[in-house]
Design goal:
- Helix 9 runs antiparallel to helix 10.
- The protein has a domain of about 120 residues: Tetratricopeptide repeat domain (Serine Threonine Protein Phosphatase 5, Tetratricopeptide repeat, Alpha Horseshoe), CATH 1.25.40.10.
- Helices cover about 80% and strands about 0% of the residues.
- The relative contact order is 0.05.
- By secondary structure, the protein is mainly alpha-helical.
């Protein structure tokens, strides 16, 4: 309940905030159907605000592991964005829908959603802006995760690499770190240990730039695993100890 209140306090800049807080949130908290209220009250709302509400509520449902509700709300948000011919929001909603489907293992549906996001990311009129590049990176990352889950490492690598290159060019250090860890994981699975170690090292570098102790710890752990596979047990132990020190600090 506290998470719900906090999320909607952050939405106060929208004109429909008070209306939704009073009428829709109690329904969402009881896990009942929210769309019924929205359908009944629709004449009083503009579609832009309705998109915002559905989009954010879908994310909140996913955070609460209510994946069916997340899918329902993000599908509705996507439909509104398509009605409005709003390329930006089509990309955003499609990516969220793809993430919902990935959480429940519905990979064909997830792929369809992320491919739609990628398609519209590439024709977005402001594609070359930081926001446009971030959306493109997110779409590529989503597809990379799908192919990684399906065991198609080479295809997954290509999407993660494109996503990481965009993040690096736009100065999104967190994105570079996360993509680099995943690239390392893909390469490790393919037994390309030298390249995997390179990417884990790269991830640690970018985690250091953003002072992410959790990220650095994860990198030490993954590098320790690699060194153990290589038979370099002393180096592996050093990485494990470094990871443990961070976790206990």
């Amino acid at each position: 309940m506290d998470d719900l209140k906090s999320t909607y306090k952050n939405m106060i800049r929208y004109s429909v905030y008070l209306y939704f807080f009073l009428l829709a949130i109690p329904v969402a908290c009881k896990k009942k159907e929210t769309l019924l209220i929205l359908k009944q009250r629709k004449p009083k709302l503009n579609k832009g605000n309705l998109f915002i509400f559905l989009y954010n509520l879908g994310k909140l449902y996913r955070k609460k592991a209510l994946f069916a509700d997340a899918v329902t709300h993000h599908q509705a948000a996507l439909a509104i964005a398509e009605q409005l011919k709003d390329t930006l929001n089509i990309v955003k909603a499609a990516n969220q829908l793809g993430t919902d489907y990935r959480r429940v293992g519905a990979m064909p549906n997830a792929a369809k959603a992320h491919f739609k996001a990628l398609q519209f990311s590439e024709i977005y009129s402001k594609k070359d802006t930081p926001q446009g590049q971030q959306l493109l990176s997110f779409s590529l990352n989503g597809l990379g995760n799908i192919y990684k889950t399906m065991g198609q490492g080479r295809i997954a690598y290509s999407y993660f690499k494109r996503s990481s290159d965009i993040d690096e060019a736009t100065g999104n250090y967190l994105g570079v770190a996360m993509n680099s860890v995943t690239l390392g994981s893909v390469l490790e699975h393919q037994n390309d240990l030298d390249s995997a170690y390179f990417y884990f090292s790269k991830a640690m570098h970018y985690d250091s730039l953003i002072n992410s102790s959790t990220g650095i710890s994860i990198c030490h752990n993954r590098m320790g695993q690699l060194q153990a596979k290589r038979g370099k047990l002393n180096e592996a132990l050093a990485h494990y100890k470094a990871a443990q020190k961070i976790l206990l600090s």
